[in-house]
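Hi R.,

Here's the chain you asked about this morning:
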Amino acid sequence: MAGSRIDSPTHSTWTDRQKACQMSTLFILHPVFFSPSKTKIYRNPQPTLALSLRSSNMGDHEEDDRDGGEQGCCPNAPKLPIQGKRNILITSALPYVNNVPHLGNIIGCVLSADVFARYCRLRGYNAIYICGTDEYGTATETKALEENCTPQQICDKYHAIHKEVYNWFNISFDEFGRTSTPQQTDICQAIFKKLMEDNWLSESMIQQFYCETCSRFLADRLVEGTCPFPNCNNDSARGDQCDKCCQLLNPTELKDPRCKVCRKTPQIRDTNHLFLELPMLKDKLEEYINNMSVAGSWSQNAIQTTYSWLKGGLKPRCITRDLKWGVPVPHEKFKDKVFYVWFDAPIGYVSITSCYTLDWEKWWKNPENVELYQFMGKDNVPFHTVMFPSTLIGTGENWTLMKSISVTEYLNYETGKFSKSRGIGVFGNDVKDTNIPPEVWRYYLLTNRPEVSDTLFTWVDLQAKLNTELLNNLGNFINRVLSFIAKPPGLGYGSIIPDAQGVESHLLTKSLAEKVGDYVEQYVEAMEKVKLKQALKIGMSISSEGNAYLQESQFWKLYKENQASCSAVMRTSVGLVYLLACLLEPFMPSFSLKVLNQLNLPPETLLSLSDETGDLERARKPWEILPAGHKIGTPEPLFRELKDEDVAFFRTKFSGSQAERAAEGRG
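And the predicted structure, written out as tokens:
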């Protein structure tokens, strides 16, 4: 795609408009965490617990306005990188704002990143988790036409829906923002100007449909027609894809094309656009990929996709579009165009961080001290491993480039695929109506996380995992331990954790402790490599070991025959209960809070797996985790059985499309 060089317009120094962040918080809904035992509201839900009991430094603070001041000036001040600590910047692919996220979107991006962010906090790393809605582009304009409103109204509506869904799933963003902000415009245009100054941009003419009735060039999704593929002939195919046969299309391939708005036949016209010269950046990009894919242990699917793009030969990539809803191009010749969403959206990570702290460059222009971890579905890989790094490299500035990328395949639904456009599957706003609690949904999605191949959501499988793994394994172990301790003296311990004299000589307990210590080390190793599914399985194995330990010890007999041994078993077991709350907190934070409550520990107690405080070694002596003499709370069942009739009901309720459900009164 040959193009001619273009000259940069006069480039004045970028005026710092970051102080407008104060205004942008009016539009960005911050996550809150409601403690089950308090009415205070906390920003950034990070309910973590400690193997050695410590007080939380969060305190009882009401919501406050950030002033972007020095770190530590107040408990809710933005976190900044700290010299000598692991500083980890975590992002998940920005969900597009034109629809409600389905379960496949949630596990592929925000939930996976949340688990890792919570783990990083558990380990004592200095980590922030940044995300937000991707709001510019064709899909927003199209949705606005469908709902007969403005693009801004669409963004406001669906941003709030996304925020509500993620709050319900207990996603612990440090900042959940949006891309339709002044900060996004400033940073996007500044990057563009640097690329232009350094001659990484060219211009070239392309052909595109133009609607004379609407007086506009038509983006792919604004063109409809008959699918050109044999045996399909769908007469409602879009210019980018046919939803009937799922083939990707170019608008000019459609038979009988028509404008989606006025239904008239458009004409093909030439239009001038700007391109990022990826071939000229290839050497620098390949050096980055070759080094970081190894250092950052990129997931195999990310590596395969990235090298496939490189082997196919990089081509200049168009960065502009003939739209109105987007970041305007700051160049006189292209002033009627906006930036293409692939160019604009990844910059959203940066601009949303700038709304979190005015010192955003300390995170984003600090590769020596900050590690960037990014989470996404497989369809987003080239934008994050090829195009976004190329954009940042081209500026010549010292950007924090991605170190590690964790990529999921697709989560499919029952007999087909989840689909936002067709309304197929279970959506984020559906799950709360099932009365199945968030921890169960999180657990099921994470055990079913499509890390190396596509996986399948089925209601029967959800039932099996809930009833067998959560109820009969994890819930059963915790309830047996706490219920026995809670029994009155003569039958139990009157809710008081007993002392454990001579536990070091109790062979069964020592054997269990060694196994648990090994499991904790394996858990940490898996989480450091972002093997989330493996780490969750390891955590649940500790619960299985606990059940076997209880059974083999026959504690109900020991209570009558050998009180000292029974006390050792009970104090060790209640330590395991606490350890499970710690290890499983990244996966099921609301479960961990319930366990804390039943242990009669305050919800702001910090769970920790820090090397600095010896927490990993302490896991090898679980009888020392909770102090003798501590009075526990009231044991209650943690999980409820999902019955066959429930499964049948949900399968019927969520069959077909959302439109079909609504028409039949099932939605």
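Confidence is low (pLDDT under 50) at residues 1-50, 52-75.

Let me know if you need anything else.
M.
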